[in-house]
C-alpha cells in the first residue's frame, strides 16, 4: 500500500512538473546599471563602469518635462552609446547601442533566446521579451533596451489624465467664441 501511494505521489508530481511552464525572469539592466536606480546611484555606477566614458552630468537638460532626466553617454568598445532616461529620479528606460564592429543582430538575438527563451513578440524590426516587471527589446539595427513596466504604466495613466484635461480645456476654449 505504501509503495502504491508513493508511486501515485511521484507520478502526480512528475505530471505537474512536466506541465509547469518556467517563470521568465528578465534582467533589469546591464552590468551595474539597473532599472529603478536613483540619479546618484546611476552616476556612481557609470563612474565605475569600464563600458562607458562618463564625465559627469551636463549643466543643461533639454527635456521639456521637469520630472524627467536624460543621460546620453558614449560607450567604450562593445557599446557606441547608452541613453538612460529617468522619471521622478528613477531610471525607467535604459537603451544600449551595441558596436556593430563587435556584434551583429543575429548573434545578440541568439544569445537572448538562449538566456530567456523565444521572444513574446518578433517582427522584422525588433524582438520583445517581457515579464511582470521588465520589457526587454532587441531593436534593429543593434539596440538593447530595458523598460520598467510599472513606471511606464504610471506614465501612461498620467498621460491619459492629461489628455482628458486637455480635451476639457479645448471644449472650454471653444465656448469662448
Domain count: the total is 1
In terms of quaternary structure, the protein is single chain
Major sheet = 8 strands, antiparallel
What are the secondary-structure elements, in order, as H or E? Answer: HEEHEEEEHEEEEH
User: Into which percentage range does the β-strand content fall?
Assistant: 25-35%
Overall geometry comes to globular
* Estimated radius of gyration: 23 Å
Percent of residues in helices comes to 25-40%
What is the total tally of β strands? Answer: 10
Spatial gap, N to C terminus? 89 Å
Low-confidence stretches: 1-20
pLDDT average, as an integer? 82
What is the count of helical runs?
4
Secondary structure category: alpha+beta
Topology, element by element:
Elements (H helix, E strand, L loop, with lengths): L1 H18 L9 E2 L2 E2 L4 H10 L3 E2 L14 E8 L3 E9 L2 E9 L6 H12 L4 E3 L2 E5 L3 E6 L3 E6 H27 L2
Antiparallel strand pairs: 1-2, 3-4, 4-5, 5-6, 6-10, 7-8, 8-9, 9-10
Describe the structure in your own words.
By secondary structure, the chain is of the alpha+beta class. The chain has one domain (24-175). The chain is 38% helix and 29% strand. It has four helices and ten strands, in the order αββαββββαββββα. The chain has helices at 2-19, 39-48, 105-116, 149-175, and strands spanning 29-30, 33-34, 52-53, 68-75, 79-87, 90-98, 121-123, 126-130, 134-139, 143-148. It has an eight-stranded antiparallel beta sheet with strand order 3-4-5-6-10-9-8-7. Strands 1-2 form a two-stranded antiparallel sheet. Strand 1 (29-30) and strand 2 (33-34) form a beta hairpin. The longest helix is centred in the C-terminal third of the chain and has 27 residues, at 149-175. It is globular. It starts with a helix and ends with a helix.
